[in-house]
Structures are given as C-alpha cells and as structure tokens.
Amino acid sequence: MCLAIPMQVVEVSGYNARCQARGIERDVSLFLLQDEVVAPGDFVMVHVGHAIQKMSAEHAASAWELYDDMLQRLGESGSA
Questions:
Q1: What is the DSSP letter of 36?
Q2: Enclosing domain of residue 64
Q3: Contacts by 61-68 with C-beta closer than 8 Å and gap 24+?
C-alpha cells in the first residue's frame, strides 16, 4: 500500500519546496507539478519526497482526520 501525506508548503525554490506537517519539515520535489503554480501556504500530497498533487486546506485536514482515526484504531487493537 502506498501512502501520501498532506503537507503545507513553507518555501519554494525552483522545483523544490520546504514543506511541513505537524511540526516536521521536509524538502520536497515539485518536479511532478511543473504545470502547477505552487506557492507558500499551499497544500500538497507528498509521496516518497515528491509532491504529487495540490490540494485544499480542507482536503488536507480531512486526510489527517482519517489518518488519526486509523492510528487510533490500530492502537486500540494492539496491532501498532
């Protein structure tokens, strides 16, 4: 299973961006979004260091709610 993580763009430099999510910052490639304008404050889905799509803040929050729910359920079942 592949998993992409919603992150907020902090800084853009060419085809690279500094993104953050939940206090963690990462350098992310924007190469796959060449046809999109990506600016600080935007949200992107990040998979293995590459932004694969832009998304709204609402969709990012919804994804994090889903991930939190999955983690909570894993913790309750003792499978974590």
A1: S
A2: 5-77
A3: 63/6, 64/6, 64/21, 64/22, 67/5
CATH code for the domain of 54:
2.30.30.140
| Helix (H/G/I), strand (E/B), else coil: 21 | strand
CA pair distance 27, 19, nearest whole angstrom: 6
pLDDT tens by residue, 14-51: 999 999 999 999 999 999 999 999 999 999 999 999 99
Considering its fold, how many domains does the chain have in total?
1
How many other C-beta atoms lie within 10 A of the C-beta of residue 70? 11
CA distance 39 to 48: 20
Task: Let me know: does 44 contact 60? Beta carbons within 8 Å.
Answer: no
CA atoms of 20 and 35, how far apart (whole Å): 22
pTM of the model as a whole: 0.86
Name the percent of the chain lying above pLDDT 70: 95
